[in-house]
Amino acid sequence: MTQAMKIAAGEWTYVLRSRLAVWTLGILVALVAVSALNSDAQLRAEATTRAEYQRQADEAYRAQPDRHPHRMVHYGHYVFRTPAPLAVLDPGVDSFTGRSIFLEGHRRNTATFSEARETSVLTRFGSVSPAFSLQVLAPLLLILIGFSSVARERERGILLQLLAQGTSGSALICGKAIALAGVAALALLPLLVSGIWLAITHPAELRPLAMVLAGHAAYLAFWVGAIVAVSALASSTRSALIVLIGAWVLLTVLVPRLATDVAASVLPTPNQAEIDIRLQAELRAVGDSHNINDPGFQSFQQQVLEQYGVSSIEELPVNYRGLVSLQGEAESSAVMDRLMAEQHALQRGQSGVMKWFALVSPYIAIRHLSMSSAGTDLLNHQQFLDAAEAHRFNLIQGLNTIHAEELDYADDSARSRDQDAEQRTRVNSEFWSHLQEFDFTGTAPAQRAVSALTLLIALLLWLTASIIMLRSATARVSTL
Amino acid sequence: MMTAQDATPDKNPALIAGPALKVSNLHVSRNGREVLSDLSFSVASGEVFALLGGNGAGKSTTLLTCIGLLPPSRGDVFVLGTSPSQDPEVVRRSLAYLSETATLYEHLSARENLRYFLDLAGNNASAAAIDEALDTVGLQPEARDQRTGSFSKGMRQKVAIALAILRETPVLLLDEPTSGLDPVAVEEFNQLLNTLRNRGVAVLMVTHDLFGACEVATRVGLLRDGRLVASFSATEDRNGGRAHIDVDTVRRAFSAPEAV
Fold first, then answer.
1. Confidence of residue A329 (pLDDT cuts 50, 70, 90)
2. What is the nearest CA distance from B72 to chain A, expressed in angstroms?
């Protein structure tokens, strides 16, 4: 056994005989393990619930009686997002954004039923996930275990004793780092076990899974190096603890907060009220598709008449009311899509600004790497919203097409005053059974892994910085 | 019995043949101040050299320079012919150092401390050898498996000396070894030192305890402002008794404003 390994073994003996260290180690491993188990159970339950709700929603839609198609446009339909397999490790923004959307005509609703909104105040930020445990709590607990690793030996004179009998400074620093890395590895163990299980059950997720594991390993290795280096460079155990806690607060609390503020000031996004006012103004310009005489559709009427070579809407071979519904939905959707695309671009821009802060805080690097690899980041949420909107548009336009092609214009115009006409405008419920299933998959696993690569490089830069700190610490302990 | 007049100052200690430890024209500065100035002495095998001086005289600096933890600005130190500035690892494996506080890991027992430090030093002493060393230093058997956090300073000192015995290094450096020890413990320590001396170990001890130094050392050097101002050797008792250094002679030299 090398000197460094002997020192590592000695440090482990200290950890195992120190009540505080044992408790801290136990809490650390239990926290990650329990959060992984809890997250897994929660996602399984959610997946089951969602599948059931989706089935009920589909069934309810298909079970509708003979109806006017526009009644079905307003009846609407729910779609649910199936959580990404790696969400068990990192739920990412999903806890805050919601995973279900109500689809209806003329409106693009946002996702609802987020975990953070649906739970009590105590858990409003979502439950503790393995990612949160490893990214925020694990560094703090590693600090509690390792802050005194070298500093206490200097304070008690043991450092001098070790050096005087030929123990090299590099072996000492290396041994302390190996011992603390062992603690960090124990914390990573539940993630590794979950990862192996996920790799077996979802082989396609292997690459992003490897990225999540590599990212967390590099992140914790950075903290291990920094903790041992500060312990060696500090004049006392007290100052080592103060410096390390200060660094933890700065890197995991203050810098992320600052990054959010900087991103919001560089690329400000309008608030919901501003968006709603602008949307309503632009939708008014489109016109009301329920009213075929709305001025917004006069030029459309002219185009249709020219297209079919007729002089009045009554002569059209199709139901003009249905055509207006089709046109109105197309135009209002275009407005909503354009505004949403602007919003999404701004949000992605903000996310991009925040990612630059990965060079200021390793926590930001691992947070984005983890979410991006797991498919639970902002980009995947936006893709879900866009996919749901595309599904909504196809559903509504399908109903509007039935409206245009299956219903007689005269009956449709008279249905409010003629009972028989109203009956004839009811479409056979057979049509509702053609409802397409919503299937959202998000970014492909391989692409997710590739997109997280730059963040892994940022983490490796942080790891390099901590190795440089360790070298400086080695020089510091080797001489007085 | 020797008299004070029999103690003779060394004219040139560096000329002693085959020293285990040799300090040659050593200058050491700390924080911009010269702490050791042209310091020269040597310690032969089987010799106990006590470096006596007041606070700030440069005693601990001398030891740390011998270990290679402080670099000399001029001059050099040689342990068995090797300079710590050239090969600190080799030098450190040739010597044992006992700090004033006899530092041990408090969460380990006496036996575990010895095993750990010996392992790190690359020494595979057997359990029997460890027990024998603990017998030699007189640590009670019932204390050997207790964590050293509850040990008195004297008990810790015994474990530290046991470590030095087990490492079998030819050179032993002691920093204020009897500071804070009760008289019985001091007497036991002196006996241990004699044992080591008889085994041929070269001992350099720094202390401000004049009586203790004269009691145990074969030579005493006076260190003042980083300079060796005088040294005294014990000579054989005319009646065949144990050699010692006269306390009064050394005390007069210690109190004198100039070198003897």
1. confident
2. 12
Average pLDDT of chain B to the nearest whole number: 84
Task: Note whether A139 and A180 are within 8 A (CB).
Answer: no
Region at B176 (left for phi over 0; alpha for psi -120 to 50; beta for the rest): left
More confident residue, A223 or A380: A223
- Note whether A13 contacts B120, CB cutoff 8 Å: no
Mean pLDDT of the residues in chain A: 87
pLDDT digits (tens, 9 = 90+) for A32-69: 888 888 888 888 887 888 788 888 888 887 888 888 88
The confidence band for B5, taking pLDDT boundaries of 50, 70 and 90, is very low
Q: Are A343 and A275 in contact (CB under 8 A)?
A: yes
Q: Do B120 and A7 touch (CB under 8 A)?
A: yes
Query: How far apart (Å, rounded) are the C-alpha atoms in residues A233 and A227?
Result: 10
Q: Is the pLDDT of residue A207 over 90?
A: yes
Dump pLDDT digits (tens) for A312-323.
888 888 888 888
What are the C-alpha distances in Å from A302 to residues A229, A293, B34?
Answer: 78, 12, 103
Q: Does B64 reach chain A within 8 Å, measured CB to CB?
A: yes
Contacts of A18 in chain B (CB under 8 A): 107
A259-292 per-position pLDDT tens digit: 999 999 999 888 888 888 888 888 887 777 788 7
User: Residue written as tokens 């509850």?
Assistant: B150
**Residue for token digits 């080592």?**
A240
Look at residue A123 and tell me whether its pLDDT is greater than 70.
no
What residues of B are in contact with residue A160 (Cβ under 8 Å)?
69, 97, 99, 103
CA–CA gap between residue A187 and residue A134 (Å, rounded): 8
Sheet holding B171-175, edge to edge: B8-9, B227-233, B219-224, B48-53, B202-207, B171-175, B95-98
Task: Pick from B103, B115, B204 the residue to mutate for testing the A interface (most A CBs within 10 Å).
Answer: B103
3-state secondary structure chain B: CCCHHHCEECCCHHHCCCCCEEEEEEEEEECCEEEEEEEEEEECCCCEEEEEECCCCCHHHHHHHHHCCCCCCEEEEEECCECCCCCHHHHHHHEEEECCCCCCCCCCEHHHHHHHHHHHCCCCCCHHHHHHHHHHHCCCHHHCCCEHHHCCHHHHHHHHHHHHHHHCCCEEEEECCCCCCCHHHHHHHHHHHHHHHHCCCEEEEEECCHHHHHHHCCEEEEEECCEEEEEEECECCCCCCCCECCHHHHHHHHHCCCCC
Q: Measured between CB atoms, does B210 come within 8 Å of chain A? A: no
CB contact under 8 A, A163 and B96: no
Contact assessment for residue A375 and residue A443, using Cβ atoms and an 8 Å cutoff: yes
β-pairing, B171-175 vs B202-207, is parallel
In A338-375, which positions are buried (b, 16+ CB within 10 angstroms) versus exposed (e)? ebbeeebebbeebbebbbebbebbbbbbbbbbbbbbbb
C-beta atoms of B107 and A6 within 8 A: no
Minimum Cα–Cα distance from B167: chain A residue: A165
CB contact under 8 A, A158 and B95: no
The Cα–Cα gap between B31 and B104 comes to 29
pLDDT of amino acid B9: 37
Q: Using the beta-carbon criterion (under 8 Å), do A157 and B167 form an inter-chain contact?
A: no
Report CB contact under 8 Å: B120, A165. yes
Average pLDDT over residues B18-31: 91
Least Cα distance to B182 among B212, B221, B139 occurs for B212
Q: Sketch the domain layout of chain A as residue ranges.
A: 2-478
Dihedral over Cα of A16, A19, A22, A26: its sign: positive
ipTM confidence score: 0.84
